[in-house]
Amino acid sequence: MPKTASVSPRPALATDLMTSLGELLRQWLPRQRWFAGKDRPVSELGLLSMTELFPGCLHLLVHTGHGGLPGPGGVPAGDCYQLLLGVRKNLSPRLGRALIGRAERGPLAGLTIYDALHDPRSAQLLLERLRHPGAAGPLRFEGDPSVHVPAGLPPRLLETEQSNSSLVYGDEFILKVFRRIQPGVNPDLEVPVALTGQGCRRVPAPVAWFRTTHPQGATLGVLQPYLRDASDGWALALQALASGDDFTVQAHELGRAMAEVHLALAAAFPRSGHDGNGSTAAAMTERLESAAHSVPALRPFVPGLQSAFGALATCDSGPPAQRVHGDLHLGQVLRAGREWFVIDFEGEPSRPLAERCTAQSPVRDIAGMLRSFDYAARQRRPWRPEWARRCREAFCGGYAALAGWDPRKKHGLLRAYETDRAVYEVLYEARHRPDWLPVPMAAIERLAVRGD
Predict the structure, then answer these.
(1) Helix 411-432 / helix 278-294 crossing angle, nearest 10 deg
(2) 70 pLDDT exceeds 60?
């Protein structure tokens, strides 16, 4: 294995790191799947925190800005990203995909910079940090002392598209490294810990995690058991469509599983009383107007979509608001054996952390899953709307059997939340996967004229 360069920047030089890294990161960050500012030029780039995790690997929190005033606590407005950067004199060919570039100036001049999560050595050393709780500068490594994590588990970086980065260790554990960092406890740590305390077995329990205390407290990563023989719901749904099989039995069981999770969430976190649907409708309308400003294809449908939100004022307010998943779809559920598991409680990363942690209607999650069945059905040609319809019915039936209320009887509420979800999908696809834009746009056309 090539030797790493000695890169222990002296305190006086630490603030000069951006002299070495600034231009490289300006070019590299917008190309990353998890970078949220692809549609805006990076006008500001600054170092918020730097820690040498071990020789040859720097942990950085960097600020990217697009203009604006400082936010709470004096932290600049914009986004904060977590980077683990490897530094070597020369990069081995096997790490070619991880290359960021060669620094030409500053304290790292002449050294090669790369994404250290691609490096097995760095990934193994990161696991060692998690195996032995302690501190490294502002970083804190913590865990459940009752769970033993073996040493020497071989790491592999998952290549699937996502808003974070995940490392699998020996097919026994998976470490999610959050990329876009917001102050506070990340729901993907908070919620599974709380559900484990409720005895809910539908969510893998965190075994270790790490966080930072500077510039503000924030969760950086979570280690959980890896369900090695599991398949995600999206893959299973596509398999069923490809083979012409029905998916209603699985959808019904998934509905029951989600009701079980919602009941556990309601027990673990305080529920919220209703202040009417007015504020919810206003927030949905604001998101619609913002999305229509960014995606011109939405504009002709705005009046019809607004009617779905306006109807909230007179429809049944539904079940009490509570903590929910926040970004539920077929890719966020796993089936291992005959059991469904729910993962990724981070919510929609584009929304503020405080908003993602607030109590919301469980109909929000249900609408997300119903939209996901439609997404799956549209992956086949010709489109099979009856497949999606049967799955929707089965999911809602399974949910109602355990939850004590039936989503299908909350017509106005469900239509509003489905519309809000479809608007989010349009904005997401326009920014990240333009070829997929016709999928949510088809739902937009339907929801804009539907009167139920």
Answers:
(1) 30
(2) no
Q: Does residue 63 sit in the same domain as residue 27? A: yes
Same domain, 189 and 51: yes
Report the C-alpha dihedral over residues 378, 380, 386, 388, rounded to 10 degrees: -50
What percent of the chain has a predicted confidence (pLDDT) above 70?
91
Please enumerate, as own/partner, the contacts of 138-141 that have beta carbons within 8 Å and a separation of 24 or more: 138/49, 138/51, 138/212, 138/213, 138/214, 139/51, 139/53, 139/59, 139/210, 139/211, 139/212, 139/213, 139/220, 140/210, 140/211, 140/212, 140/213, 141/208, 141/209, 141/210
**Residue 261 three-state SS:** helix
Rounded to whole angstroms, the Cα distance separating 257 from 333 reads: 10
Tell which residue, 85, 106, 102, 92, has the closest CA to residue 24. Answer: 102
208 and 289 together in one domain: no
Q: What is the pLDDT of residue 452?
A: 43
* pLDDT bucket at 3, cuts 50 / 70 / 90: very low
* Same-domain pairing of 173 and 251: no
